[in-house]
Design goal:
Blueprint (H helix, E strand, L loop, with lengths): L1 E6 L5 H9 L3 E6 L4 E3 L5 E3 L2 H8 L4 E2 L8 H9 L3 E5 L7 H4 L6 E5 L7 E2 L2 H7 L4 E8 L9 E8 L6 H25 L14 E2 L15 H10 L6 E3 L7 E12 L7 E5 L2 E5 L4 E9 L6 E2 H7 L8
Parallel strand pairs: 1-2, 1-6, 2-5, 6-7, 8-11
Antiparallel strand pairs: 3-4, 7-9, 9-10, 12-13, 13-16, 14-15, 15-16, 16-17
Helix pairs in contact: 1-6, 5-7
Length: about 300
């Protein structure tokens, strides 16, 4: 099938690769503009999807806008039967949605209608979900609201971070996409409307989410820590004047009567902190301001904490 692919970050690369390996004619790739990198921001780094497309000799288009007519003209010239979108980062206007005869489909990293929005993997982990997955859906004017074509689920381990879930879903998305495109090609693809009563949202992440509220239960704090890795990352100021970032933790199963936010024990294996439900959470990986990520034991060597005073 003649396909235009639209995507930007690492998550979208397995989907593009899967289409190419399946023998589809990917006639063009749309990706967001290259971003400046380096100390002086004087070098442009191609998006992961652009780099992948170029490795296969596929033409790449990087419009700054989709509503000025230029992108539509480029798409008409490419004349795709189907447009596939995976984490493109832009909303497609109606005239583009209506262009390909087979429609526009999207690879979304949640089991819709749960977690519509820009950060579905993060919020699934933050909320302690035991399962997530990928959805292939027809695109509609409303964000992530189109009919579902196919879904594939996967469990989330209680100690798994958003990074490992992300990588697994990216691969699953590519596998499911190829099967779905084959069904679209032969006319056997199904359509299931989303249930509006089951819609939940996954809004964009921001640094305002970072501070840890130690009044919360240990499980909730643990989920937040593993759900905000690597950005914006959780942070705490309970043992430093400036917030220290926390990248990993584990539930100890131990209890304490000390006040939430109190350091109850330190050791080479971590820093134990009292939480709002009386449970103890062990912090495993930290980053002091101006420093690098390091194991808690290494952090303690440079920033000693005397838990006996608490």
């Amino acid at each position: 099938m003649r396909i235009v692919f639209m995507g930007t970050p690492d998550f979208a690369v397995p989907s593009l690769e899967a289409l190419v390996q399946a023998g589809h004619e990917v006639c063009g790739v749309f990706s967001q503009p290259d971003k400046p990198v380096g100390r002086h921001q004087n070098k442009l780094q191609p998006t992961p999807v652009k780099a992948c497309a170029q490795s296969h000799g596929i033409p790449v288009f990087q419009p700054t806008k989709l509503r000025d007519g230029t992108a539509l003209a480029q798409l008409k010239e490419l004349n795709p039967e189907l447009i596939v979108v995976a984490a493109y980062g832009r909303i497609l206007p109606d005239d583009i949605l209506a262009l390909p005869p087979k429609g526009c489909i999207n690879v979304h990293s949640s089991l819709l209608p749960k977690y519509r929005g820009s950060a579905p993997i993060h919020w699934a982990v933050i909320n302690g979900e035991q399962e997530t997955g990928v959805t292939i859906m027809h695109m509609a004017s409303e964000l992530d609201a189109g009919d579902i074509i196919a879904q594939l689920a996967t469990p989330i381990d209680p100690n798994e971070t958003v990074e490992t879930v992300h990588d697994r879903l990216a691969q699953m998305g590519g596998e499911l996409l190829v099967k779905t495109v084959a069904q679209i090609a032969d006319g056997t693809a199904s359509r299931m409307p989303q249930d509006p009563a089951k819609v939940t949202l996954a809004p964009m992440l921001s640094r305002s989410l970072s501070p840890i509220d130690w009044e919360q239960p240990a499980r909730s704090i643990h989920n937040k820590i593993r759900g905000l890795v690597p950005w914006p990352a959780t942070s705490t100021d309970i043992f430093s004047k400036e917030p220290v970032k926390v990248f990993a933790s584990v539930e100890t199963g131990e209890t304490t009567t000390k006040a939430p936010g109190t350091v109850v024990r330190t050791g080479s294996d971590g820093i134990d902190v009292a939480c709002g439900d009386g449970q103890v959470l062990r912090l495993l990986e930290l980053q002091a301001p101006g420093s690098r990520r390091m194991a808690a034991g290494d952090y303690l060597r440079g920033h000693p904490i005397d838990a006996s005073k608490n």
